[in-house]
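Sample entry (149 residues):
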Amino acid sequence: MQLLRAAGLFGANAVWRTTGLRAAGRTLVNALASPDPNLRTIAGILLVRAGQKAEPFIEEAIHRQLNLPQVLVMAGDIGAKKLEPELRKFAEHPDPKVSGAARDGLRILAAQKSWIENSGISVRHRPRRGGCPHPPHHGRGRPWLREHG
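Predicted structure, serialized as tokens:
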């Protein structure tokens, strides 16, 4: 039975990522509260792989307080600067797992910001997974990255 639920998550992810259907994305959010840790992990991985597109769903999961230790780290993983105030609020949570996860999410956000600032690379635009959405750039290396000299 769990195998069918896992397959359903992959199917919902495919529908959400290709069509933008919010109900399919919400299926992943709801799976974050599953009693099965494997389903929670799969849902988390799929949401993080979606990057910024998952930010509204991660924000919803935080507001619904679904599996907070995992979700707070996921907010950092996707670089959700908009959720930084929420992470700061949860860093003072009485549950040590929740407060630790919030601090981890904040550290990840800070590390991402530091890497971009110190890398000597300016990011003009970042392509989505699967390649650059702008046809003139195809086959020309990584034109969205430009080194400063």
